[in-house]
Amino acid sequence: MHKVLALLAAGTTWWAILGVSPGLQAAEPEGPVRATIDTATLGRTVAEFRLRDTQGAWHALADYSDAKLVVLAFIGTECPLVRLYAPRLRELAEQYASQGVQFFAVSSNRQDSITELAAFARESAWPFPVLKDLSNELADRVGAVRTPEVFVLDASRAIRYRGRIDDQFGFTAQGASYHRPEPTVHELALAIEQVLAGGAVATPQTDAPGCRIGRIAEPQPNAEVTYSNQIARLLNERCVSCHRPGQIAPFALTDYEEVAGWAEMIGEVVSNGRMPPWHADEGIGHFANAARLSAAENELVERWVAAGAPEGDRSDLPPAPALPVGWNMPEPDEVLYMDDQPFEVPANGVIEYQEFVVDPGWKEDRWIQAIEARPGNPAVVHHILVFVLPPQKFVREFPGRPKSDWLTGYAPGLRQETLPEGWARLVPAGAKLAFQMHYTPNGAAQTDRSYLGVKFADPQKVKQELIVASAANYEFAIPPGEAAHRVEASYTFGRDALLVSLIPHMHLRGKDFLYDAVYPDGRRERLLSVSHYDFGWQTIYQLDEPRRMPAGTKLECVAHFDNSPENLNNPDPQATVTFGEQTFDEMMIGFFEMAPLDAVVDGRPARLSRVDEFRQLIAAGAVQLSDRQRASFGKALTSEGAFVQSVMSIAGLLPQVDRVCVTIVEPPKLRLAAVIERPPFDSDWDWNSVTAPAANERLVEIAAGETSVVLDNLIEQPRGIARHMGKHGLQSSLHVPIRLGDKQGTLNLWSLERQAFPPEAVKLAEVMARLMCEPNGK
Q1: Cα separation of 215 and 213, whole Å?
Q2: How far is Cα 678 from Cα 397, in angstroms, rounded to an integer?
Q3: From 101, 108, 498, 624, which residue has the greatest number of CB atoms within 10 Å?
Q4: Per residue in 437-470, pLDDT tens?
């Protein structure tokens, strides 16, 4: 049986953290560094060179005169794409070694120390020499611009191919990263094969995406903009929180030599807006955590890079910023690991999501003021999601509920801030925490033991609870090849609330995302526009001031998806794509954080029952079936997937529902035809696999009638399935008679709450049941 999970697949990529861009430029901008680079080297014979490897041994090109081909791979120890391609280089070197192909890895980066290079070589297990090009002479000679960039030299040592290794990893025209499941073109391997065969290389030059080589520059004397005086201050304020040891960025920007080595890369990603990472369209919305640099700040960086990255007077250096060491949050009161033992991540393959349940032993309600999930091994942790598992037997909430059990996560852009005094998140007494782990193998077997830090708030000082909610669509189907498929979702505030932040979420086909607020007086306000959505970044857009959302306000979200071959991230342009938790599926969820204003009693936050939430939604006119939901219910019993989609809609409209099932009377048995419930209640039931005697069963009696029946106090029911459900903690239920062809049955909704189904809920369920029984929902 399908087990519904709370679905948020936040993801990241190494290269998204850096914002590196596609390869060779037709004309390099002028400057003291770039002027020495000649990129028109295809066909040129590479003269003799002699470089040391990481062990200090010399290697001359002439020493390998018997090699039929030589491959020069320019690398950098901290370049994300180099790390992704390290296993591929090893595989190719091993594949062609017997055919006389000699590989070299060459670091021309001024910021790569010999020690760092040696450690990286050991980690990559490369079976070929790793050379240090101290003065970037070899890089200049062949015209290398980026890492990883490869050059194939034939027997006469003429350059026959230069460019990328293959097309698996790269960047779109907007600078967003793409990551194909597999390469579609193996340019380096093809070039090697074609040169070995004595023919011409069909594609002798390609753009190489990656990091700019950190060349040694000659800084302009008496430059007005220097690292010590201006750039270090700018980096401290805008970059160092991530670009420092132990944080998410792949390299630090806290030392002049390191920063100078990345100077051209910094200039590039700043000038085209890829760094700092911020995807909200300018001029729409106001955000406290906006990361975009001002025009004046951009100009400072451009002038510094153009001047050759001068250091300046060290006495002008500002003090290092006072940033937390290790944790981004204050020192946690408690640290919880996902498991007692590390999880073993294989070298290759696709790993299904792993879930680890932790019992923190919290016997009382805990109010959380700050929380941070951290990867034990960032090299293989794609994302971490942490959910609250309530103490009842039904431990996982349906996605799409007005309240989400999502607590926190780890991914680029998901930076959890410490809540202000008086604000906190609630974890109820007896709850457990579930770590959902997404791993991405990187070519070498690894282990991981990720963890979570929490800072508690004083319960007596908590005045406002912060919760996560969402506007979500589960019924969409993106046609094959469509480049801009529109999907809509909405959420209506049943009570006055403060809107705090917006968190758009899609997967690899996500193209753009909008949030609009439509107020009860008809006024419409655009809150957020993300024209170029990047799955590599999961950003929380924090409003500069919490925005009041009166009861009845509708939050409308519109997204477009690119399922065409032009979307280089697209796993399969020929697929019809529907909602699902894996990245090759799609999601359309407009998450947001809010603080309900009427959930405060005597100055303290008080939780409403879910039935009261439903009544508020009814009062606000928020419980209405859309056309897409009607169509979804019309198909609900055609397949398990269709039933899952319809139940997600039920959960959004009826937040008090904890279990949905359909039973069919097949004398002398009552058969369970479809079911979704929260684990671990469900054991391992499959569709059509569970039956019960029909004799003396209340559900059979209800199925034979014409009237819906509400049952309260299930544990006190005299017999049958209802009493059985009561023993498992359910309190009340609603049963609607249905007719499927010539068979009788019931649509059954179950809740952990007593008196969960007022007349409005009964009326809504009857409409749903009627739609389920009518072909195509007509």
Answers
A1: 6
A2: 7
A3: 108
A4: 888 776 678 899 999 999 999 988 998 889 888 8
